Amino acid sequence: MAVQLRVLGVRPGARLLAHASLSGTGLRAELLRDALTGVLGPRGTLVVPAFTPENSRTSSAHLSRIEGLDEAGVRAFREAMPAFDPARTPSQGMGALAEAVRTAPGAARSAHPQTSFAALGADAERLCAGHRLESHLGEETPLGKLCWEGGQVLMINVGFSVCTAFHLAEYRIPKPPLRMYECVVKVNLPEGRSGPGREGEWTAYEDVALDDGDFPEIGRAFPDSRVRRGRVGGASAMLFSLPDAVDHALDWMTENRC
């Protein structure tokens, strides 16, 4: 596996954002994580999305969980929702590799309650620090830092529809559309306080209205010359420059989004 990663173009010392769906590939998450960190070496950093989209009032993931509940049931469900805790809350729908990185000894995780990242390696703590609530995937996030520092994106057994890098382009569009978000976050409350929500509170904030509906089309327009393709284990894989992906997505969105 390490040889395949090197042939694909993963290099020692790189900062690498990895997306993977290991179902049906025969790849084990821990072995893939260790192969990646081994190739990256002591100066490299492996980063994965550790998102928690269900921690929301409006996401499709949350709405699917409350579908069919009456008003009282929705209220009870939301009052019982656990607050996001960077140290303990599992990622949701990000796959086994993301969880293998998040739970590894020495891993760092950013503090955003919906779009956190987990990282292992030399720059893990620095990349994950300072992830503001009002910026899911903008410049002042692990994704933004990776872009400014010339990071790469590795995609294993997934397509451009889940390419998180494209979201950064949405923040670079002049006057991007905004919307309100709400999520429940962990708070430190006085000893002895009890009752629903005693470990967390709902917090509202405004941020860019994220939309990944056209990501497959943006990916199809991404020049093949900028993408290295190969195999990792028995799975298809792509490796490309994160800044190149963001620049391409920005050009495409500027021309094609209303």
Oligomeric grouping of the chains: single chain
- Evaluate the radius of gyration: 19 Å
Reported for the largest beta sheet, the result is: 7 strands, mixed
What is the average per-residue confidence, as pLDDT, rounded to a whole number? 93
Order of strands, main sheet, comes to 3-4-2-1-5-9-8
- Counted up, domains total 1
Distance between the termini: 43 Å
Count of individual beta strands: 9
Q: Extract low-pLDDT stretches.
A: 192-198
Give the overall silhouette. Answer: globular
Architecture blueprint of SSEs:
Layout (H helix, E strand, L loop, with lengths): L1 H7 L6 E6 L8 H12 L4 E5 L10 H7 L4 H10 L15 H7 L5 E2 L7 E5 L2 H5 L13 H7 L3 E5 L8 H8 L5 E9 L13 E9 L6 H6 L6 E6 L2 E7 H15 L2
Parallel strand pairs: 1-2, 1-5
Antiparallel strand pairs: 2-4, 3-4, 5-9, 6-7, 8-9
Helix pairs in contact: 2-5, 8-10
Explain this structure.
The protein has 258 residues and is α+β, with helices and mostly antiparallel strands. It has one domain (2-75, 90-178, 210-256). 33% of the residues lie in helices and 21% in strands. The chain has helices at residues 2-8, 29-40, 60-66, 71-80, 96-102, 124-128, 142-148, 165-172, 215-220, 242-256; strands at residues 15-20, 45-49, 108-109, 117-121, 152-156, 178-186, 200-208, 227-232, 235-241. The strands form two sheets. A seven-stranded mixed sheet has the order 3-4-2-1-5-9-8, with helices on both faces. Helix 2 (29-40) links the parallel strand 1 (15-20) and strand 2 (45-49). Helix 2 (29-40) packs across helix 5. The model is unreliable at 192-198 (pLDDT under 50).
